[in-house]
Design brief:
The complex is a heterodimer. Chain A has a single domain, classed as Udp-n-acetylmuramoylalanyl-d-glutamate--2,6- Diaminopimelate Ligase, Chain: A, domain 1 (3-Layer(aba) Sandwich). Chain A starts with a helix and ends in a 13-residue tail after the last helix. Chain A has five helices and five strands, in the order αββαβαβαβα. Chain A has helices at 3-9, 34-39, 55-62, 78-87, 98-112; strands at 13-16, 27-30, 45-49, 67-70, 91-93. In chain A, strand 3, helix 3 (55-62) and strand 4 form a beta-alpha-beta unit. Chain A is an alpha/beta fold. In chain B, the strands form three sheets. In chain B, strands 6-7-8-10-9 form a five-stranded antiparallel β-sheet, with helices on one face. Chain B has a three-stranded mixed β-sheet with strand order 3-4-5. In chain B, strand 9 (282-288) and strand 10 (292-300) form a beta hairpin. The chains are: A alpha/beta, B alpha+beta. Chains A and B meet through helix 2, helix 3 and helix 4 of A and helix 6, helix 7, helix 8 and helix 11 of B.
Chain lengths: 125, 324
């Protein structure tokens, strides 16, 4: 799916990176623990989180995430917005809870894959 | 070198004049009316993590309440009373169109923690709040973006050639979470330009970031040095203390001494050191309670081996030697 589709699925508001919404989202990580994000190997993934600090963008940049979604409409802190603009990583705000957001993504992927259950690389620890 | 330093100081000085208060301030700002109780403000401070707030009446600034006022309200058992009669009324403000140098001078003179920012001189309409750390963060970001622009111009004109050795060095400032990760991002960008394979680059970036966060969270400050050699990248992070009492224990996945504040940032899961080790081809850590901690990681970059990423955690064949 593209970031644009992800934004639609999550009823999201794009806070920055509007010009990069046609990029493909290859994987997902949903967590409030950035240490976990650093320990798994995913590329071009959407980082879904309840955190609002600048480190979500730093972590995204370091680990090659393609976008960052903040759930539950929590307003990101100013350094996070500044960093999103500077790094060019789209930052999206979604009103859904983390669980609902994950369910929505999962439903979309299942539909896209013709009902086949999606398998993802398990996290390496 | 002296000339360079002089130019750097001139640049920062110039930026202090160029950057306007409205660019560096925090906005929107939480304001309260004089009828709000100390307790309500205290709860909000705790939730939103600030330590002072302007008091407004119909949008007009009438006073200011800081954490000190809350503490004395606790002391005098008036925590459930409105703040109106007790707030500081004679508030010094800074207009949003002033340079941050003006604000910096006020901070220096009065030792305030924060300044309410007003729409214009003589106005009482609050549009934001400015702290010293807002100024510092904005300044460093501005310096960084200038540096990046220069780097970009240099690389466009083809001046960055791959040299046999190439060392980057960054100071790591303890507890500055707005800037945490800046060094690692810069390393990543630089090595990307030097043509390091993306999968290997990702491992190097994660090592730098974990080590940088560790130093910022736990240490009294230090530096990170990244050396690009022909066949490998060497990352050295050295801090000035306080040292790790039990290194073996600190290496265990899940062991952490991080506090609640660090965990609220999404870190402190006790995965940092083991993750560095996992990503590195060679890893060593030395720590002493006298001199501090030194983490060294080496990642093979194998330019001849093509695009296949080396398997993480296993030493690559061409770097059989141990780190001393």
């Amino acid at each position: 799916m593209t970031i644009r589709e992800l934004v639609q699925i999550l009823s999201g508001e794009v806070l920055s990176g509007e010009d990069k919404l046609d990029r493909t989202v290859e994987d997902f990580a949903a967590t409030d623990l950035l240490s976990d994000v650093l320990a798994i190997e995913k590329e071009n993934y959407a980082l879904m989180t309840g955190l609002t600090n600048a480190q979500i963008l730093r972590t995204a940049e370091i680990t090659n995430a393609c976008c960052v979604v903040i759930v539950r409409n929590k307003q990101p802190k100013q350094p996070a917005i500044t960093l999103a603009r500077r790094s060019g990583i789209p930052l999206v705000l979604s009103p859904h809870t983390m669980f609902d957001a994950c369910c929505r993504v999962s439903r979309f992927l299942e539909k896209q894959n013709g009902g086949a259950a999606r398998t993802s690389n398990p996290a390496r620890t | 070198m002296a000339e360079l330093r002089e130019r750097q100081i001139l640049l920062v000085h110039e930026l202090m004049y160029q950057i306007k208060v409205r660019e560096a301030m925090t906005t929107p700002v939480v304001c309260f009316s004089p009828a709000t109780t100390f307790r309500e403000i205290q709860l909000c401070m705790k939730e939103k993590k600030f330590s002072g707030t302007p008091i407004t009446d119909n949008g007009k600034l009438v006073g200011i309440i800081s954490i000190d006022d809350i503490i004395s309200a606790f002391d005098h058992r008036r925590i459930d009373e409105p703040v109106g009669p007790y707030m500081v009324r004679d508030v010094i403000t800074v207009p949003q169109n002033y340079s941050v140098i003006a604000a910096s001078n006020i901070f220096e003179k009065f030792h305030f923690g924060r300044l309410p920012v007003v729409e214009a001189a003589q106005s009482c309409k609050v549009v934001g709040v400015l702290t010293n750390s807002d100024i510092l963060s904005h300044l460093l970001m501005a310096v960084n973006s200038i540096a990046e622009r220069f780097e970009h111009e240099e690389s466009v004109s083809g001046n960055i050639a791959r040299r046999p050795t190439d060392t980057l060095r960054f100071e790591l400032v303890p507890d500055n979470f707005d800037l945490a990760g800046l060094a690692s991002t810069a390393v990543k960008k630089h090595l990307q330009k030097c043509g390091v394979n993306p999968a290997i680059l990702r491992r190097i970036a994660v090592i730098c970031y974990e080590a940088e966060m560790n130093a910022i969270i736990h240490s009294l400050g230090g530096y990170m040095e990244v050396q690009l050699l022909t066949d490998r990248v060497r990352i050295l992070v050295v801090d000035e203390g306080p040292g790790i009492p039990d290194v073996e224990k600190a290496m265990e996945p899940g062991f952490t001494t991080a506090n609640e504040k660090i965990r609220a940032l999404g870190f402190g899961a006790g995965m940092g050191l083991s993750n560095i080790k996992r990503c590195a081809d060679q890893f060593s850590i030395r720590s002493s309670m006298e001199s501090g901690t030194e983490v060294e990681a080496v990642v093979a970059i194998n330019p001849e081996a093509g695009t296949a990423p080396a398997s993480p955690g296993k030493p690559a064949e061409n770097t059989a030697g141990r780190v001393p």
